[in-house]
Sequence to fold (419 residues):
Amino acid sequence: MHKGEVLGGRFRLDQWLGRGGFGVVWRATDTVLDRSVAVKLLLAEHAADQEAVGRFVREAKLAGSLSNPHIVTVHDYGRVTDVTGEVHYLVMELIRGRSLAAVLKEGLPDHGRALAWMAQVGEALADAHRNEVVHRDIKPENVMITDSGDHAKVLDFGIARLLTQATGLTSTGSVVGTVPYLAPECWSGGTVDGRADLYAFGVMLYEVSTGRRPFRADSPYEYMRKHMDEIPPRVRGKDPALADLVAQLLAKRPADRPAGAAEVLDRLRAIRPGMLRPDDPSPEQLRRRADLAWRHGTEGRAGDAVELLVQLVPDFARICGPADPRTLRTCHDLALWLARDGSPGAAADLLEALVAEPGTAPEARADLRRDLAHWQREAARLGPGRARPLSLRVLLGTGDRTGGTGRGDGGGRGGAQRG
Fold:
């Protein structure tokens, strides 16, 4: 087919967009409705291949039966005859954008945006699975990201199956799907249902979070072995829930994966975005350093405790989150050792800010109020102490760096329990 040709007396081919294994895609004009569409043509060399034709028709029927903002809409299917023989075509909405695979080739996207795209892919899968359709070829090449960067859309339901007809192999015994994203049951010939899509989704979630797939191999056989036997390294997200979700999605046994796409979607939406750097400490390592600071203080070195905690709080905020209880508890520790180091006024200011922090738990807020009242009394009795310009917003990385707590000279000590 060539530019300018009209299919079925209606769809004029305007610009060649790309080619896949089975077809080519054109931007076209629907001359009846005067709108731009995408037209996918089955390659001429496959026109006599009944399996290829069946895949093409199946894509039209299954994708056409779904209506979801994150699934590419199929408008029409038809076939015409030209000098090369029979030409099958599929008419779809035109997505102005590029594939997620193309996006990833340019480097890792913002993690928050990547998780939003994955949530939209999750919505598409949840809707497909509710309608008893398993996609079977979830991968970045089959996810389109719009030019605005706000929307992800799943396409290519060519090898999709109704769940009531799901199998692991084709009638010829070949594996169906794309090797780096295939669940173990796809290799072993087991029953393939929506949980195979969840496995592929887990591979993709790993990829958009880390920039690499969980398994790398040089041959299909090596991929098979890794998918079936190897446990990949855990992702290092700032939110441990990300690593937990990915690990469960990549479980070898379908029964060990989440129950469905709807559950995955709920869990994904609750994940705080952000990835740790290779040299970042884990939350457990940060907690051990905070315990060391506390020991410094109890051994009479309150100043050393303060210096260590001033460095630790921003790390807690970046790695665990500014509203995480571990971060806020470390801020509380810092306030107590500030007071013990001769700055009750600065400690009271920090405690007051912590009491007002929205993420503070009720039990922690009660402890903070107790200590705040104590150190306010001490500051009034003995003076505010040394000037220590500390701002909770700056420590947590959630505000500008112009604020601070300035205090006059003086000194004082008081007693408090660890928060």
Observations:
- Confidence is low (pLDDT under 50) at residues 166-173, 400-419.
